[in-house]
## 1
Amino acid sequence: MLATPADNPYQEPRSGRLTAWGNALLAGAVPPDDAATAVLGGDESHRVTGLPGDSEGELHGLTWALGRLRVLGVRGLRLALPSAGHLLGLTGPAPFNTEAMAAGEAVLAVGVPIGLVPEVNVFGPEGDRSATVLWRCSEVNDTPPADVPSLHEAEFELADGLRQATVLLTRLDVAGAGPEALQALDAYRRRGHAELLAPGYPARAVRVLESARQVSALLSIAAGGHGAAVSASEMAARREVLAPLERTARRAQVAAYNALVDEPRQGNP
């Protein structure tokens, strides 16, 4: 069974882990094996294919692949979190964008025009699931990524977005909607304090990512139909109201993960 980031709004995107820990490795902040272990997370295995110079079907482990990217001249990694009608973080060409849109995420290299899209296969019974991941590499355009804000812009937008999300949840009476909503809120609270990013990232990036994940979790609860009973048309109207906030949260996540390569080190507390 294939999975995308939308399947679990509380789980860090795998492309985010690869971006953060790959950047930490490239910056000399962590050793290769530690970076590979962090990217693996709770998955059973990650493999990489399609790197420049690879034979057809050749597969590599994470440690080797990250080292190969460095040898090829990659200086950093950027996250993309595209969605329908929003090419967030992508540069083209169209075939790569299509693959990234289907996955809901991708990683783009800095210094070498390479992009990686994860193909995730989830298996096992409910409550005991794991996943294997195949990162497919392709050539991408060497152009600025689409619609990625600075950390400063993202922080400003999120402050207002978090207020709006809280007001919406209060209006929908999510907390009083029964056990399903309470479970969703509890899942958000338990997962909201996980370690964020990787060594070497500025504190502002961590703050922005934490706020973005709060907004995403709250919006996921609201969009899931929690709160007072609503009709199909009311649910559609609710999703329309939430969509701009969801886009704000995704833009902020991308800005946070990309901070190690996109933001000046000075003046970024």
Note: The chain is about 50% helix and 15% strand.
## 2
Amino acid sequence: MRSALFSAENLEKESQQPGMRLQNSKMLKIELNGEAMARVGSMVAYQGQVQFQALGSGGIGKFIKQRLTGEGVPLMKVSGRGDVFLADFAKEVHIIDLEPGDALSINGSSVLAFDSTLKYDIKMVGGAGMASSAGLFNCVFTGHGRIAITTKGHPVVLNVDAPTYVDPQAAVCWSANLQTGYHRAEQLGLGTLLGRTTGEAFTMSFAGQGFVVVQPSEEPPTAGSGSQQSSGGMLGGLLQ
């Protein structure tokens, strides 16, 4: 049997080291020898002796916070020995290595999987107040290990060395040490364009030293949620 489908780029990638790696740009492979944490429903295939255990929000404290904020990450513990393949609606997958002292603020809906050595908490985005219905809360990851995140399309990584402004629905993650704020678009001259509204009601600002990852897609917020509640937006709909 012959087909371009069986070309080397589509064959399973093997490695001598356990852990996370990209099978391709839209699929994560975990060569499991122990345990890892993954987003519920993200498994597309696995081989070997692997067990899956739903963990909800990852603890009673986070469960309570989720009920108050509407945010969180629905987790499952993946344990055993074998190969596990994860994906999320063909979104682009990226792996980030966190070192001791690092802190990453990320939209919960962009979390695909992470090493069990990492910790996370749900925190309010600084400067948000009640100004906007989008992106009031985020997950902050710390510790030593790998985390796999997803973006809709190829992102741009902005180095924050000058005042930086991003649509809240397009911001995927950023250095947790950055100072954040929310501004009405009219304050930045974006409220109207040639007499028409631009559709950008709020803009998120970043200052300090660090980076912001921006995806080329905006997720519509759900009205009246107090935070963004969408299938793939800023921490939206992750704990049901």
Note: The longest strand covers residues 43-56.
## 3
Amino acid sequence: MLTLNCPICTQALRCDSSHRSWRCANGHTFDVAKQGYVNLLPVQNKRSKDPGDSKAMVLARAEFLRAKYYQPLADKIAQLVLNGKPQTLLDAGCGGGYYLRELLAQAEQRQQSLNCVGLDISKWAVQFAAKQSGSTQAPRVTWLVASNSQIPLPADSVDTLLCLFGFPVSTEFNRVLKPSGRLIMVDPASEHLLELKQIIYPQVHSKPEQLPVPADTWQLADEQRLTFVFELNQREHIQHLLAMTPHLYRASSQGRAKAAALEQITLTADMWVRTFVSAV
């Protein structure tokens, strides 16, 4: 049975027999919301009133991903994760749960056992993810509102940790991973959505490529560059893409006007898919 850590005292949390609440030995209790998730982000641990992605960003991303534009990435993740062995998996920064749902579907096809935790600091994202999963996946997914800076899981409890376009916290990732565990990260490469950036920014600045986690803590076990082209022919889908990324909010009013006028665009998806193991 899955054990969580209390975000207040770090004691073990266990789910009651009714699956309606989690409770630790010190009496701290966290109710399971009607959508099926539990909020383990106390007010004192929040840096803002409503941290993480907004409800609008969550819904825009969900609509975009539902159209399968990033299916090659979902397939790549499944290829890396599903090795035929039962495992506990944490999706740290799960968003609306798209990649985790895709992974579970492929695991079911291959009859592989996965015990999954989906975690995000945005309550809107976790609420959406839990609602989409429904009761059929409840035994295999525990949805949490929590922060990567304080992951409410015991040490050495995770076989595979996913961080997809997320914000890694090296010390916490290293703590929750088993000694034999692996960290799979996806980050944008230099050409990612370049065509869109060239439209909305007066000048596109290239950033130096660097690993997303410190080399003295993590050893790079595998690195693949996933690049594919996709076409958006509906203005609605273009607006969903813009709303789900930070580009719209960073662009000038002129850049936003250009984006709003787009009716079609061909884009390059360019991503680094890396697997790390602990080096300490």
Note: The chain has nine helices and twelve strands.
## 4
Amino acid sequence: MPAAPRERFVTNRTGRRMFVADWGDPLDPRLPLLGLPGFARTSRDFAHIADRLAPRRLVSLDYRGRGRSERESDWRAYDPRTLVADIQHVAIATGLHRFIAIGTSLGGILAMALAVVMPGALAGVVLNDVGPAAVPNGANYLIDYMGRDRPQPDWPAAVAELRRMIPDLSLRTDEEWLAFAENTFRRGDDGLLHVDWDPAVVKPLQHGTARATDLWPLFLALRPIPVLAFRGSVSMLLSADTFEQMGRVHPCIRQVTLDGVGHAPTLGEPPLTKALDDFLANV
């Protein structure tokens, strides 16, 4: 069982509280890590990394409308661009002056944005199955998946639903799938298991404004910063062509492809933990 984090809440610009998890020793001399979850994921996805790397400090957050963070009354407040300011607030509140960002999916895009708005804070970036261009069909599938609540009567049903919707994860055992389900659903007042996010978080993407953003300038802002990039070989979001192009334009990037895995690796897979450890030891 991973160690419990220190818990706190940071208020965003709309006055909503955002949950922050803070693992490890704040006095550890190594650069702290900032865990940026996927679009509809939470800080709990980084618990196993924090446990493995302890006592190194790792801070993560539940974005607005996800997990233990409060939901917004207006879906426009979920525009991904608002999350950049939220992360800045969290970094200031937790004293993260210089750090290594580890971003999965949307979290990786937000890490790219940090290279624009607070470049001096970024010592390194890990991009987990994300790049400056997304496969349209895969993005549409994920938006549909995240945009609908899927109430389940019990945990076996929740596991079965996740196995059906995203079968290409690296999870192999029933215990791993159950742990993933427990990080995806939470029990509601009606006794059913509901997705642990506000389905309205996808509306900015459905209305097109956020998806129209050209992300290549954000990725190019990472060129002075060491980058470790992971891709699942059957990822529905990050194509092999985009991944190859990322390698061509970034002068200090290391890339690792995980065979037979889709979107997104958990970062607990042995080839990725080794690559991550090597990267962290050299940044």
Note: The first strand starts at residue 6 and ends at 11.
